[in-house]
Fold each of these.
Amino acid sequence: MINKFNIHAQKQEFPGSDTDLNPPAEFISKDYFGSKKLEGKVALITGGDSGIGRSAAFHFIKEGAEIAITYMKGYESERIDAEWVKKWAENEGGICKIYPVDLRNSQECVDLIKHVLLDFSKINILVNNAGTQYPNEDLSTLSDEQWLNTFATNVHSMFYLTKATLPHLEQGDVIINTSSVNGYLAPGNMVDYSTTKGAQISFTRSLSNQLLSRGIRVNAIAPGPVWTPLQPATLGQYNPEFVENYGGNSPMERCAQPSEIGPSFVLLASADSSYITGQTIHPNGGMMVGG
């Protein structure tokens, strides 16, 4: 585990890479064996190349699912990370295909679903995980461009991709949205990011009510601080000192490994959560939040 003394000040070029994390992140515990909870299922995971998305991908493969993962188009580090996940999955005897895409573009989301259906013939699990953040201490200096890009990446993409996927989902299929504890705690230096995370929670709740009659469950996961490339690539770019002892102010006095978040995706993707919809799971190290 990472404790508050292990992480030092550092930064990465955006969007960051798991390869350059110091210390390295853990994506799945060596003690996680899986029990075929997702056998026969096809999962589409946005941002599945790194961080929390990579952990979800690893756990889904261990549970017998076939996976499709997206990575941010135009970044070589993203492609390398995605290829690494694909190789890992194949070494485990699984099936993984990777897709470069700009999820902020509605047509690219439509085209993505067409490609995934051609490759897999179905989608049973949609994980809206891709996201971004940019710290800002003063709303008067928060540019319109940053505000719009944060919403386009975190909220609009979720709408575009879910809308494109819905006609192909059937009873028993699921949607899982990655939100954040910051949607509840709302730190002052993350106004745009926190606002999008709150929107994701409301989107999850409302859509779950809409899809109840179709037997499709919709839930969210709101992690606390997690050791992913997004931290040195955004917080670190703003100020490398922000990354030092990342998560040390949480009740557990450390951030999470991605491996500690991945099992929550398995729960919500599997029949183990058949009576859970419209809810948010909070793997956040003990932070008390409402909702």
Note: Helices lie at 51-62, 76-91, 106-120, 144-165, 182-185, 191-211, 230-238, 262-269.
Amino acid sequence: MKILLALALLGASTGTPAVAAPDAGAIRWHQCALDAHDEEGAALDAAGAECGDLDVPLDYGRPNGRKITVALSRVKARGERIGALVINNGGPGGPSLAAPIERPEVMAVVGQHYDLIGLDPRSVGRSTPVDCKLPFAAWPWGAGSTRASYARSVAIQADVAQRCTAEAGSMLPYINTRNTARDLDRVRSALGERKISYLGYSYGSYLGAVYLQLFPGRTDRVVLDGPVDPNTYGPRLVRQVGPANEDNLRAWATWAAARNSTYGLGTTQRQVLAKIDRLYRHVATHELEIGKHRVGEGLLPILLWASLNDDRDQSRGEAAVIINNLVKAVDGPVEPDANLGGFLDAVLSPAMSQLISAQTAIACGDRAAPRDPQVYWRDIQAHRATEPHFGALTRGISPCAFWPVAPQEPPTRIANAERALIVAAENDPRTLYANAAVLRQGISGSRVLTLQGARKHGVFGEYGNACADGKVIAYLKSGVLPVHDQTCAQ
């Protein structure tokens, strides 16, 4: 979910340099930049990384059958080495090849002791990709306020499923988290590691939990940041977060009201929220004209959702500028600032097709979704009063209602005695804080580190909290979990 609506414009290249044929199961290492235009690869090369490709079975039930490729990067430890740390940025469907050079303040410390491994999961990024050739980022999409707008959202999701069937049907049965965890163990073996350490954000916490369940005893130190509830993860993974996002919107409105002289959105929380409500009433009948783009009922809640994910002043200020642009567009066309314009360019074009395709394939492959569109409509209607801004998004229908193949395995039940440090922000608007307790119960050797009061999805190396960062680094260095759960102040 962390990368659910990210603005990274993803490539889907699976090309590799010409090298001698390796032994089976060997990683083919090479420089990271694929060509002169590959900025991500150039940045990895500049950081001293090497990139590689590993062939894995498409279908682990037929290990000698068709192979696909998973792509990874490695920045070797610069000091006294503890082991290899695999990093997953979340998603589902989020690329992680560049993870070793992201979050530079904490990775500069962690990278003294670990080989930092970035891995694009199967179907994602430079690994053999799934790409449904989507004309825009169609999931998630708001259901709007009426039967007619909901019918449009249903048609959009059915179209996604149809496109994925046509473009990637042969791969869809094998795109799921359990197979990604199996790939991860192939990577562990190919790296020559008896055990690996793991850092997973958001969906990456679920991937990490599944790996612990399927491969007990093969991890050293594990950090799961922004924990997902493994009992409810799947196509409806954000169904329960509407109330938290309504609360997050109110908190942001209070912040913006205290800065009316800067943003001009009102002097009280009520006044700011009134402008948000005016936006919703307007798009129920007329689209907003933002530069070359049009924003209607399906897209408006996504803009708010994507903007209000971080309670630090800079992020809240960027959200206020975006929302001010939207408010002005009620009275006529406006030209967007670079942030809003870039978002719309990405979402309303094929630029995010590969990311959304992989996200959809993984979620639909992990857990079945209700097939009856009326289930979602009734759910939205039952919660409109309490979730007026986000319920039509978080409770909406997905392509999984029309998916051509059923999940090939049941959802993974997490029940083990492995060890992990679970990191959770108390007011995370994406993965609810209550998830930490659920995951702690499933991984009985784990401990929870709580960042009190924070409204942020992703803590370690992302929020700038010295206490939380210090405790995670101390664990990664020592391998010793705290005796009890711990907290840090915001």
Note: Residues 267 and 429 are 25 Å apart (CA to CA).
Amino acid sequence: MTTGTQPDSTTGTRAPRKVAPEIARSWLLVNASRTELYAPAAASRADQVVLDIEDAVDPSTKPEAREEVASWLEHGDHDTWVRINDRSTSFWSDDVDRLAGLPGLAGVMLAKTEAAQDVTETFDRLGGHTPVLALVESALGIEEAVSIARARGAFRLAFGSGDYRRDTGTSADDLAMAYPRSRLVVASRIGGLPGPIDGPTVSSNHPVLREQAAVTVSLGLTGKLVLDVDQLPVINEVISPTPSDVAWARDFLDEFEARGRVIRDGSDLPRLGRAQKIDTLARAFGVNPS
């Protein structure tokens, strides 16, 4: 697998090309209080970077972390996401007011989203053009997932799996967690959103990461929150089309063109749609056929 590069205006090095957020696989969460991590995160293999001023930051230091994030966004071409505090907290208003209109803000990840109104109020306070990635982290959020996905300003859904387990008492077992993940997949489809983003895996053990990312893909989620840069290569690889899938897709598309784009039977249209999707993602991710 190959990845394109682009110059990094902060470090002078060449950083991996960031994949469009609609199809981004890896969403790297960075503690906003750890300013020394900002530039390495921007230069990492993460498709998207999220500076976290919510759970990662102690309440007493949130104002300082917010200002550090604002300074980063104001001074440089960073195109970064920010995880803001949830609508029910006293920090939310200060977050949206400080971030609104900043040139480097790609979008916000709204913590603990539980209603469509949480999304629309955030979207409106940010000026009506900044995308809101709704982080669903509770039983109520899962129950309201369809209305959240349909909310004005909603961009994608993400699964806050740790808080969901704390809220419901659910174990981390794949079977137990299949229901909320599937709810987010179905809600995203109904709401016309890209595929949802799965919660993080704590371990950086490669076999564990591969197994968990494969579960993500099997359930229809198309991205994953990431806690450590060491996790990025594995997660990006597993969520990408395989080289053999790319080879099949391009062979099918070539053959389809060669026969004049004629549909032969009922299986052709589904296969055509799958081949086109694989080809599009492979080009975006730099995956070459085997």
Note: The chain has a mean pLDDT of 92.
